[in-house]
Amino acid sequence: MRLGAAGRSGAAGSGRPPSPLAERWTTLNGVDVFYRESGGPGTGTVMVHLHGFGLSGRYLLPTAERLSGDFHTFVPDLPGFGRSGKVRGKLDVPDLARAAAAFLDDRGIERASLVGNSMGCPVICEFAYQYPDRIDRAILVSPAGGRQNQPLPRAMGQIAQDAFREPPRLFPVVVPDYLRFGVTSTRQLFHSLTRYPALQRLLDLQVPTLAVVGSHDPLMPGPQRTLEVARQTGEHVSIVVIDGAAHAINFSHPGELANVIRQFMTDRPIVDDPDSPGRAFVAEIHRGMDLPSYG
User: Fold this and answer.
1) Which residues of 119-136 are buried (b: 16+ CB within 10 A; e: fewer)?
2) Which CATH superfamily is domain 2-287 in?
3) DSSP character for 89?
């Protein structure tokens, strides 16, 4: 393992305060992998944040940093993404789930709770399918990759629509990631997503699961379809809506999201955080019977 040359992500000149997450490198199956890690183990519970399609973990940092005092936090750039090295051959969701497991092995971690955004959510579902004994809880933020986002032209139109709903400060964070990922990789990975059984893997989840969606997210199905899927998932899934949020909730609404995740992880009632700025508010619209009651 080697410490990244940039030191910590909030280095001088970055325009933001120092980050509580250190920047580090390791090697997985011959590929250099960049990741961020909280300085201490926190409560001892490990939490790994997994990014979306074509992106790095950089846009996940606003939420991950807020949670780093509560959990031993990791934010990797999966192989083939962001600052991590390229991989030979085609990327698909099962490969990325195996890469996440290899990352945990490399860090000496047996079990973790996983937080995903967008494509990171099917990666979590696949991880749980392949390694059911290695996941404590699943937090799926703006899950994407299913029928709602196919074919590719439809998905690209949804992404373009979402761009006008995200804060402008997101663009300089994600545009370099998309350019680095490239057109060929985009086509190959999207092709694999069209064949991935996203809904079935979601229904296969057996761990306590929190799904968080934004009311202004054009990549998500409407409320009626969301509830239909929720009713199929068994009794271990809770669904929360952050009103006013679009797709990149981890970046645009980190205070609200971190508050929801803390409440879910400690089995407290999921309610709005009055200390988070802005007009967004949180509403739990579905709660599985197997989850702890609030009585």
Assistant:
1) bbbbbbbbbbbeeeebbe
2) Alpha/Beta hydrolase fold, catalytic domain (3.40.50.1820)
3) S
Angstrom distance (rounded) from CA 71 to CA 256: 17
User: Is the whole-model pTM more than 0.85?
Assistant: yes
Distance CA 18, CA 79 (A): 26
pLDDT in tens, the chain (295 residues): 333 333 333 443 445 667 899 999 999 999 999 999 997 655 579 999 999 999 999 999 999 999 999 999 999 999 999 999 999 877 899 999 999 999 999 999 999 999 999 999 999 999 999 999 999 999 999 987 666 655 666 667 777 788 889 999 999 999 999 999 998 898 888 888 778 888 889 888 889 999 999 989 887 766 666 667 667 766 678 888 898 999 999 999 999 999 999 999 999 888 888 777 666 678 776 676 667 666 5
Backbone angles phi, psi at 226, to 5 degrees: -60, -45
Which letter does DSSP use for residue 151 in this model?
S
d(CA 153, CA 166): 20
- Tokens read off for 90: 């085609």
Would you say the C-alpha torsion 150, 155, 161, 167 has a positive or negative sign?
Answer: positive
